[in-house]
Amino acid sequence: MMIILCPGIHEPELTENFISGWLSEKRDKIMVFPGQGILALSAPHILQFLGDRCKNRQNSPIVFISFSAGVVGAIAAAWNWQIWGGQVKAFIAIDGWGVPLWGDFPIHRLSHDYFTHWSSLLLSSGHNNFYAEPTVDHLSMWRSPQNVQGWWVDSSNEDSPQKMRLTAAEFLHLLLKRYE
């Protein structure tokens, strides 16, 4: 399984903090989309990057982890990657508020506060999501998920959703373990 990180519009150091804070043992499986600024929104550029990196491994499962504005380009790239015959194992959107998320693959959202979590669910997501409590600033979700406390919400049973307290990094670890 490969992991593609699609950062938002922010300093590249935040992405390095994201990796070193909880993903360092998987560094050899990580591809970071290098597009800066507005390119974070560009599905064609993300697809070109994936095509260049995965020439002979198109059937290798990929987990997309995207942040903020990067969610826009990443979800469109995930759809197209699958249409082109690639395998999308899961899609994880971190603070992609306002971005509708649909696909033929599992989708998870992480939000920096309860309002963002609740209002994003109106635009669809999967059953396993996370929101920070106490609320943190937007960039903290990417800079240091290991320091963000919150709730994993499993809403597969709509009558009685289950919640578990953990950090955003622990939630991400559990998701990646599920899709390995």
Automatic annotation (TrEMBL):
<keyword id="KW-0472">Membrane</keyword>
<protein>
    <recommendedName>
        <fullName>Alpha/beta hydrolase</fullName>
    </recommendedName>
</protein>
<keyword id="KW-1133">Transmembrane helix</keyword>
<keyword id="KW-0812">Transmembrane</keyword>
<feature type="transmembrane region" description="Helical">
    <location>
        <begin position="62"/>
        <end position="81"/>
    </location>
</feature>
